[in-house]
């Protein structure tokens, strides 16, 4: 039997067993090492604010319909930042062996069965195609950042950043800090905005100048730094309507705001009759279920994930510094309580599944 996390009710975390089925010839069994918590999507499920808990998503019309809820408690299959080790291979598997490390999105659970194709395309370690020559030491924990890093890279693609652009990132959670690094790799002059001291210091340590919104209007500061022009591109990853409004204010005339935050409820604090309207600001959504339309014939989620892992392995993208807390998986309730009640203390929170057999 395996063990998985569930939300039994808003702000209630449980652990439950699930059957561990036998392996088929073309499959591998992966035992989870670490599982990262998303402070955006997962907290909406933990708190009970996720729109799927009130409405049903109609995939044909691509509409939320208020006739019934699409999800109900208990919620299972939570989480999408996992890394594990292959512990068993099927008789027909040729590209993987026991002991290899694999990343993926299988939820907060102690094990998963993957096809050889899926697992081989997400393998980490010297035998993988992603490895940089001369890489001597690495931490399997790196694998939890594949999916969350892909979200950041997807935003940067959607921003269409050009060499020399002034890019401003609103929000220095995990996605924001990764986004700022990727924007710099694109040749941008990057600034980042937040009001949490721990996150501001971490971003500065990783090379991104910051603006503390507690000290005054970020938009006015950004205008002053750009000869009143504003940001060429603004990337919003806060999920706050007030922050989105300020991001719009900070953006140059006829320029773009890429919106990656997962907003909840109605848009209090967002005033679209002001700078958005008068400055012809473009709002572009970036969401993990798709890629930038101009790239969808070449890029997909797997390529985004592989690119993030390659950049990290090559030392061009710093990810491990974002890990602020590691909790044993049986103490998951404490991890969620931290993110819910004291978010300023945390960046990337991780569950360690190695103690669960």
UniProtKB/TrEMBL annotation:
Its transmembrane ranges are none
Q: What are the recorded GO MF terms, alphabetically?
A: metal ion binding; oxidoreductase activity
What Pfam families does the record tag this protein with?
ADH_N, ADH_zinc_N
Protein keywords: Metal-binding, Oxidoreductase, Zinc
**PANTHER family assigned to the protein according to its UniProt record, in alphabetical order:** D-GULOSIDE 3-DEHYDROGENASE (PTHR43350:SF19), NAD-DEPENDENT ALCOHOL DEHYDROGENASE (PTHR43350)
Family to which the UniProt record says this protein belongs: Belongs to the zinc-containing alcohol dehydrogenase family.
Q: What is this protein called?
A: Alcohol dehydrogenase zinc-binding domain protein
């Amino acid at each position: 039997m395996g063990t998985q996390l569930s939300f039994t009710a808003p702000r209630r975390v449980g652990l439950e067993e699930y059957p561990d089925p036998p392996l088929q010839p073309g499959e591998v069994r992966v035992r989870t090492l670490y599982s990262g918590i998303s402070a955006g999507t997962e907290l909406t499920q933990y708190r009970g604010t996720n729109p799927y808990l009130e409405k049903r998503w109609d995939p044909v019309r691509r509409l939320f319909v208020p006739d019934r809820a699409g999800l109900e408690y208990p919620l299972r299959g939570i989480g999408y930042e996992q890394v594990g080790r292959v512990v068993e291979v099927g008789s027909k598997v040729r590209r993987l062996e026991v002991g290899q490390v694999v990343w993926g999105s299988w939820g907060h659970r102690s094990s998963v069965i993957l096809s050889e194709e899926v697992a081989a395309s997400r393998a980490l370690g010297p035998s993988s195609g992603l490895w940089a020559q001369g890489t001597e030491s690495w931490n399997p924990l790196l694998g939890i950042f594949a999916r969350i890093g892909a979200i950041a890279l997807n935003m940067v693609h959607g921003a269409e950043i050009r060499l020399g652009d002034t890019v401003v990132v609103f929000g220095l959670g995990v996605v924001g800090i990764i986004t700022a690094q990727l924007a710099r790799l694109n040749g941008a002059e990057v600034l980042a905005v937040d009001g949490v001291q721990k996150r501001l210091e971490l971003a500065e340590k990783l090379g991104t100048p910051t603006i503390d919104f507690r000290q005054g209007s970020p938009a006015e500061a950004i205008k002053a730094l750009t000869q009143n022009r504003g940001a060429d591109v603004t990337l919003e990853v806060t999920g706050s309507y007030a922050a989105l409004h300020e991001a719009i204010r900070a953006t140059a005339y006829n320029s773009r705001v890429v919106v990656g935050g997962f907003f909840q409820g109605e848009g209090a604090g967002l005033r679209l009759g002001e700078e958005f309207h008068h400055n012809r600001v473009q709002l572009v959504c970036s969401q993990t279920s798709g890629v930038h339309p101009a790239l969808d014939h070449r890029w997909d989620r797997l390529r985004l994930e592989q690119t993030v892992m390659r950049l990290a392995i090559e030392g061009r993208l710093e990810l491990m510094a974002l890990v602020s807390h590691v909790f044993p998986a049986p103490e998951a309730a404490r991890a969620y309580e931290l993110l819910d009640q004291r978010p300023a203390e945390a960046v990337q929170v991780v569950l360690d599944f190695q103690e669960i057999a």
